[in-house]
UniProtKB/TrEMBL annotation:
<keyword id="KW-0223">Dioxygenase</keyword>
<dbReference type="Pfam" id="PF03055">
    <property type="entry name" value="RPE65"/>
</dbReference>
<keyword id="KW-0408">Iron</keyword>
<protein>
    <recommendedName>
        <fullName>Dioxygenase</fullName>
        <ecNumber>1.13.11.-</ecNumber>
    </recommendedName>
</protein>
<comment type="similarity">
    <text>Belongs to the carotenoid oxygenase family.</text>
</comment>
<keyword id="KW-0560">Oxidoreductase</keyword>
<keyword id="KW-0479">Metal-binding</keyword>
<dbReference type="InterPro" id="IPR004294">
    <property type="entry name" value="Carotenoid_Oase"/>
</dbReference>
Length: 495
């Protein structure tokens, strides 16, 4: 193993592995629900070579696509392979890192500054029978879901004009349409945002551009039945700072946040901007929906500052980890009213990686799941991921008629010390009365190393622990996001 910087981004659970692995027929303990047949795809950053600069971070890692396949015979297969991006190929040919600081093209080797530098490491997106590995700083890469072979950069058959595509698409389960955007669409540090719609066959049918209030990290967005929502938080980019070799992102505590709202099939000229609190930040959103009065409710994992320590450090924000406060927070706006600011309500505990059934996207969700920290945990959390601490508690929350229910955390599964959850995916049940299943990878400290299992949890009875589990007998790095694909869809795409 090459020598990596001995920082939190490259040690412990974040230690680079750099191995492509294929393990077949792993033993499954317990009873596998009949619905859990298919593939759990995971995006895993893992650097191919030590970074050019020692202060690099885990989010710069080359994208690896991981597949946990649940087979009809009750066994599990595990495969992981690098996404062979243009960046990966350029560095592989040279045998060393050639791209510089995180999302700063001006620090790359001169002869690769025109090379697509995305690492495609954030989300495996499945739509219309295609698997795309996406990261928000470039176009996605298409991957064969059966072989994990990289098929190349994907621009929707030449239709996509934006230079970037988000890793957080939203798919309407009723129409099959995929709603997508890309920020810095016009190039690094630009304020232009592309908003586009892909029909159920995978054809890009409309792309529009609008200007954001400032160049911000727009990691996620949301849709309702009638609207598209574009949150803006003051983690900002500046071109002159980049040219001077500085950080892509700096968080500005005294700058306003915003929520852009437009009809999802409308024109960007109809965008309305609602002002939010100063200095806040969110990476992931549970859902957005309209109530019976036409009020939009938007639920997000909101923090009082940027959650990533490396961004706070670059911003001169010196806060102890326990001073970074957050909660599942609802912003409500009337898209047809006179108010110009959001109304804020706390609807859940601190945490992240919220999950709802795919059929509830953009509709009222009476329940949902998220990861959090066990308030009664004994000892520190497992160190890992870009925040530096992994979650150790899975929660189910209930909501009634769009309003928070008293005691809304109704089920929880805390892990013992030295264990952590990766983001789960939801698998629907064939029984309409059942809440479905959650599939997740669990890490466990084992001396100087780690052990890993994939768990299947009953979404309506988290506290009972896994109904099925399988040991993955190889070292894993923390994932970013994942996607569940039923076996029937995989078979149809292969045919």
């Amino acid at each position: 193993m090459a020598i990596f910087p001995q920082t939190s981004h490259f040690v412990g659970l974040n230690q680079p592995i750099g191995q492509e692995v294929s393990l077949k027929g792993l033993k499954l303990e317990g009873t596998l629900p009949v619905e859990v047949q298919g593939a759990f795809f995971r995006a895993v950053p893992d650097p191919h070579f030590p970074p050019k600069f020692d202060d690099d971070n885990v989010l710069s890692g080359d994208g690896m696509v991981s597949r946990v396949a649940f087979n009809a015979d009750g066994t599990v297969d595990y495969d992981i392979a690098y996404v062979r991006t243009a960046r990966w190929l350029a560095e592989d040919a040279a045998g060393r890192a050639r791209f510089g600081r995180y999302r700063n093209i001006f620090t790359d080797d001169a002869d690769v500054q025109s090379t697509d530098r995305t690492v495609a490491n954030t989300t495996p997106v499945w739509h219309a029978g295609r698997l795309l590995m996406a990261k928000e700083d470039g176009k996605p890469y298409r991957v064969d879901p059966n072989t994990l072979e990289t098929l190349g950069s994907y621009d929707f058959d030449g239709a996509l004009k934006s230079e970037t595509m988000t890793a957080h698409v939203r798919i309407d389960a009723q129409t099959g349409e995929m709603f997508v955007y890309g920020y810095e669409a016009d190039g690094v540090a630009g304020k232009q945002v592309s908003y586009f719609i892909v029909d159920k066959t995978g054809k890009l049918i409309r792309e529009q551009w609008f200007e954001a209030p400032y160049c911000a990290m727009m990691h996620d967005f949301a849709i309702t039945q009638n609207y598209a929502l574009f949150p803006i938080y003051p983690t900002t980019c500046d071109l002159e700072r980049l040219k001077a070799g500085g950080d892509h992102w700096v968080h500005e505590m005294e700058t306003d946040s915003w929520l852009g709202v437009m009809p999802r099939y409308g024109d960007v000229s109809e965008m309305r901007w609602f002002k939010g609190p100063k200095g806040v930040s969110a990476y992931h959103f549970m859902n957005a929906f309209e109530d019976e009065n036409g009020i939009i409710h938007f639920d997000q994992c909101l923090s009082n500052t940027n959650a990533f320590p490396f961004i706070r450090e670059a911003s001169g924000i010196h806060m102890a980890p326990w001073d970074v406060k957050g909660a599942l927070t609802r912003w409500s706006v009337d898209p047809k009213g006179d108010a110009t600011a959001v109304t804020e309500t706390i609807v859940g505990p601190p945490g992240d990686f919220p999950v709802i059934p795919a059929t509830m996207q953009g509709q009222p969700n009476p329940y949902g799941w998220m990861l959090s920290m066990d308030p009664d945990m004994k000892g520190p959390p497992l160190a890992g991921g870009p925040v530096g601490a992994m979650f150790n508690c899975a929660l189910r929350l209930d909501f009634v008629n769009g309003a928070p229910q008293a005691g809304h955390v109704v089920d929880a599964l805390p892990l013992p010390p030295g264990m952590s959850f990766n983001e789960p995916v939801h698998v629907p049940s064939n029984d309409p009365a059942h809440l479905g299943w959650l599939v997740t990878v669990v890490d466990r400290a084992a001396g100087d190393s780690f052990e890993h299992e994939v768990w299947v949890l009953d979404g309506g009875a988290l506290h009972k622990g896994p109904v099925a589990r399988a040991v993955i007998p190889t070292r894993l790095r923390p994932q970013v996001h994942g996607w569940w694909v039923p076996q029937a869809q995989l078979d149809a795409a292969k045919a």
